[in-house]
Amino acid sequence: MLTFSRDGWLKLETLWVHRLVTMKHRWCNIKALPGANRLIKHLKSNGVPMALASNSPRESIDAKISFHDGWKDSFSVIIGGDEVRTGKPSPDIFFEAARRLKIEPSSCLVIEDSLPGVTAGKAAEMEVVAVPSLPKQSHLFTAADEVINSLLDLQLEKWGLPPFADWVERTLPVDPWYIGGPVIKGFGRGSKVLGIPTANLSTKDYSDLLAEHPAGVYFGWAGLSGRGIFKMVMSIGWNPYFNNKEKTIEPWLLHEFTEDFYGEELKLVIVGYIRPEVNFPTLESLIAKIHEDRRVAESALELPMYSSHKDDSYLRSS
Ligand code: ADP
Ligand code: MG
C-alpha cells in the first residue's frame, strides 16, 4: 500500500503488478502498475511527503523498489512488516509511518490494494482509497472511503492533494502498448445487441499483457493489413453488463466497413485512457456511453500527441 498525507504523503504496495509479487528473488521482473510512476513523480514534484508501508520484510521492499528508477528517493519513509510489532490489519504500521513522517494520522491518505490494509488504514483513522488488486473484488472493500478500479482513476483533488495535470480533453495519455493478431469470433453480441462491432483478438497469447492493464476504455490506432490504419476505441475487461468470465479486448474501428474481416491481421497501438469499466442499468445507457467514448477518442486522436502514433511501423507490420 501507499500512503500520503493531505499535507501530505502516502504509502504503497499498490504499485506492483500483483501476480508477480510472489516471485521471490525475481523482483527485477516486477513491473510498476499502470499509473504508479505517474503518481510517485507527481507527488514528489509537488512536495507531497510519501511513505511506503508494507507487511513485507524491509529487506524485500528495498530489493523490490531498487529496480524502479527514482522510487527509493521519492519516499521520506519506508517501513516493513518486520519493523513493527503487529502487521496489517493492525494499524501499527500506519501509526509508525505517520510518526516518522511527523504528520498526524488523520492528515494521511492511504492507498491500499488489500483488505487487511484497508482495515489497518481505517483503524489508524486515516482516509483510505482502495485499489483492489484482484478483479471483481471491489464489493468487499466497503470500509474504504473510496474504491477505484486502478491508479489511473485516482482523483487527488478529492483528498486535498494537488490534482494531476496530465488529462487532455477527457483523455489520459498512457505509455503506448501494442497488441495484435488475427481477428477471431467473439460472443457475437457487438453488432447484434449493441450495433457496435468489436473485432476480437485471441486473449490466449496475451494473458500477461491483459492482466497488466486495468479494465477500462482506451483508444488508439488500428492497422488492418491491406486495408489501412483507422482510429479505434476499445474496452478491456469483463463487460459488467454481460458479466463475462474472461477478460477480453474489444476494439471498435471507427470506420464503416462493407464486410466482415474475420481472420485478417489486426494490429493495435493503445495511446490513451478514457474511463474505468462500469456497469450500466440499461442497454440504452451502455450504448449511449460507448458512443460518447467514440466521440472522445475520435477528437482526441487528432491531437498531435496521439495522432503521431498513426505512423508507428508496428501498425503496418505483418
Ligand atoms: P464478434 O462477437 O464475433 O466479435 P461482433 O458483432 O463484435 O462479433 O462483430 C465484429 C466483427 O465485425 C469483426 O470481427 C469484423 O469482422 C466486423 N466489423 C465490421 N466493421 C467493424 C468495425 N468498424 N470495427 C470492428 N469490427 C468490425
Ligand atoms: Mg466483437
From TrEMBL:
Top-level EC class as recorded in UniProt: transferase
Domain Riboflavin kinase: 172-302
GO biological process, one term: riboflavin biosynthetic process
InterPro entries: HAD-like_sf, HAD-SF_hydro_IA, HAD_sf, Riboflavin_kinase, Riboflavin_kinase_bac/euk, Riboflavin_kinase_dom_sf
Pathway: Cofactor biosynthesis; FMN biosynthesis; FMN from riboflavin (ATP route): step 1/1
Record keywords: ATP-binding, Flavoprotein, FMN, Hydrolase, Kinase, Nucleotide-binding, Transferase
Domain of life assignment: Eukaryota
EC number: 2.7.1.26
GO molecular-function terms, A-Z: ATP binding; hydrolase activity; riboflavin kinase activity
Name the record gives this protein: riboflavin kinase
Gene: 11421860
